[in-house]
Predict the structure.
Amino acid sequence: MSLTRRQAFNNGLLAVAPIVTGVIPFGMICGVTAIKAGLSPTEAMGMSFFIFAGASQLAAIQLLAQGALPVVIVFTALVINLRFAMYSASLAPHFQHLPKRWRWPLAYLLTDQAYVMSINRYLGDQADAQTHKHWFYLGVASTLWLVWQPATAAGILLGAAIPASWSLDFAIPLTFMALLVPGLRDSPTLLAALVGGALAVAAADLPFNLGLMLAAVGGVAAGLIAESLQQRKQGQRT
Amino acid sequence: MTRAPVSGWGFWLLILLIGLGTFALRLSFIHLWGRIQFPQIVHRALRFIPAAVLAALVLPALLRPEGSIDFSVHNLRLIAGVLAAVIALLTRNVLFTIAAGMATLWITQMIH
């Protein structure tokens, strides 16, 4: 069964709807934090528009407030966003048939949530996994962008009115957890997650969030080794 | 907090640089794929990226909420996170997972 473009796009909208609940607090936190650090509302919105990557925005705001050197701020933000290059590599085979006018906007809209939801869809067995892949992605990613901007604005406006006791920031790791669990399909991916998580906890003190990159590379390596061992075992059996 | 010395045009230049750099990272392989041949190991490694990166984002937030590793019952975020993980496994539902985690955190904060 083959889907139309519109159906694939709508499937993306349906899939992303629950994720929005975790993205709104994240955007609001970016707005609140920017204002508290002394940025103007326009500057705070500009960050969400030009960078569109929450974790690096928060890090940049923090460093700005501390009076860090601009070169350090840029470097830190980009190291935090290195994971996007991995996502880019992972999605690339699925977008390789597309012209530039598609690839560039799709790349601008690439986020943790858009990546994971789309790749889980492509690797799963849904009807639209093989046709109009980029329309599903567009449904997810454009929704996230359209939610992110007003969420930042809401944070700017409501700034002082949100009590810290609400712990809204906890919605961020919870969102990632909700995305993580469905992807753990076999023991190599489970091992990749365990090693990645353990390394991130151990290396959390490294500067520039380098621990995240180290953990990602270590986790992927662990998954590859586990997969090789598994295949060797199966080879011996046959 | 006081405003950093970076202001006006300097601020916008900084944001533009981070934005362009981030876009370059996002575009990198999507642009190059099909133009360059990548070794087999790259193809095999791709499927482990989500699990490794997401776990690396989640676990420190649960185990080191205040900066240092905290395995005690006083680490409410760890309790809430474990419960949310169980709900995620059972329901595979994003909304239930986030709701369970937030609700657990609020309730434990009240009685703590």
The mean pLDDT of chain B is 90. Chain B has five helices and no strands. Chain B touches chain A through 73 residues (CB under 8 Å).
